[in-house]
Amino acid sequence: MRGFRELLKRFELHALGKWILLSLLVGIVAGLGAIIFDFLGQAVVRFSLAQFAGYSPPEAAGEHARFHHETEAVVPWMIVVVMGVGGLISGWLVYTFAPEAEGHGTDAAIDSFHNKRGRIRTRIPFVKTIASAITLGTGGSGGREGPIAQIGAGFGSWLATRLHLSDRERRIMLAAGMGAGVGAIFRAPLAGAVFAGEILYSDADMEADAVVPAASASIIAYSVYVQSLPRETRFVPLFGGGLDHVSSSPMELIAYAALALVLVLVGALYVTFFYRTHDLFKRVPIIPHLRPAIGAVLAGVLGIALLPLFGNDTRILGVLGTGYGTLQIALTAAQDLGVAFLVTVALVKIVTTALTIGSGGSGGVFGPSMVIGGCTGGAVGLVMHRWFPDVVTEPEAFAVVGMAGFFSGIARAPISTIIMVRALTGDYGLLLPTMLVTTLTFVISHRFRLYQKQAATRMDSMAHRGDFIVDVLEGLKVGDVYQPNRDITLIPEGMTVDDIVHRLAYCHQHYFPVVDDQGKMVGIFSDDDVRAYLYDQTLWKLAVARDVMVDQFISVSPDDDLNTAVRRFTSHNIDELPVLDPQRPGTFLGMLRRKESIAAYNRRLMELKNASAEDAS
Predict the structure, then answer these.
(1) Where are the beta strands (DSSP E) in 74-191?
(2) Residue 477 pairs with which residues in a beta bridge?
(3) For residue range 49-70, what is the model confidence (pLDDT) as tens digits?
(4) What is the pTM assigned to this prediction?
(5) End of a domain among 442, 462, 482?
(6) CATH number where 541 lies
(7) 574, exposed or middle or buried, with CB in 10 Å at 0-12, 13-18, 19+?
(8) How many Cβ atoms from other residues are within 10 Å of residue 347's Cβ?
């Protein structure tokens, strides 16, 4: 590590070059982490659900099966047993070694960015990877993006710490790792890059400094991950390459607007139920290690209870695991499932995800959101097709748009979600309705946030508190604040201490500029400097202002901003600075006080808050 730090310094790799080099390392680790996580997850499925329950959850069309699963009769009660054991092992791992790894990892990474100076304990990504693979592999309802995001974010944080980078740089490395992980596991590098900058804030704001490093890391992570896939699926979208819908009529946009309203209601239900379930499990009077097992068992019981209601159709078990297999059908043949089936999957998926992740199980929430939004969209599309067959000709298109619209609203990330869903489906014919629905859900769903640790804007983030202060101070000039010369007593350089002492008796100044015969400022002294002469009156007639003053003084000009002035106040621990005319060297104009600078900052801050409040109203 020391050699790498010296390499950075030797070649002076600053700004873009430095970030690309560091992002290369983050991307390699994130890509390898995605491969390991994918392998572990499928291995757990093969030797748990498939081995003991005869059930192998169907996956999306573009997924690569790393293990061969024998087709056997499904044993429903054994699914519950496997899920309970998986929850028990996952809970023991998390709460024994890294309690911070509970729940969905993306929120933990966001919290580290804003409130923990970008620091993530080294063990967390390892614990999160294993616990999430067990949770999802045994049938827990969750997504893959949380653990992968935390793997990349954790390595980025660790690397920045080992290289002794600043807190700001560590935060950027964390965000880059998070984007790299998401870009790799979903095979969507552009979406991962934008996701890293956008997911940190709940309002229309973005961490712009993180986008380029995240893009570099995401490209590398994606390139590493796809090398583990066979050629025939390496560049195929996750949900296959056969999706090609179009928006057939402008009137169809009205139906999409109605879809947005439905998605907002379902999103509010999802977020509310998720966090109420989380709070309920927190109050259960048992050791936390057991909570994920309880949540997993309840989710499993609910899932298998649906089997007889739908003629033992195992597709209903999309309410467990990732649910991508059921979502695949909703995207390609929604009519085969029907409205009742799709609505059931969407609503029950809310409950099983809340039970799995809200109880402390380890997994992401993006994947379930895709299933909930896609199935809701598919159901709305079928209803609209039944009512308006000439307007809504492709119900499956509503499932694609529903995926994007649902997550955009509750995750507060419209841009990255549009890009993500396009990359997952390969369907670029629905850009206009997707933009409409994601915008509507983003605007309307502002009260319901899936990621609770998001800051509203950069102004509200602890990571940018200092930046905002600097921005405000840089917008104010010394010339607007300082005290002009007419109120200040100037001391000639030849004035004796005796005269100075008598002058101080009738003056409330603390700092006294000293000028020469031409009126040019040559030094400055404070009342404390004069006190050193008070105990020896023999010096009063002998010492003059030039003996008392400091001739190596700092000053500011009227054109300097207050940020420059505040830095000089703090670096020299003084309360006043002389203001000199830059056009006429040495010409004294007045004094700038620290107190006046702070008052000007506070006034400007209040103006900005009032303006913001008026804009909001």
Answers:
(1) none
(2) 561
(3) 988 998 888 888 888 888 776 6
(4) 0.77
(5) 462
(6) 3.10.580.10
(7) middle
(8) 17
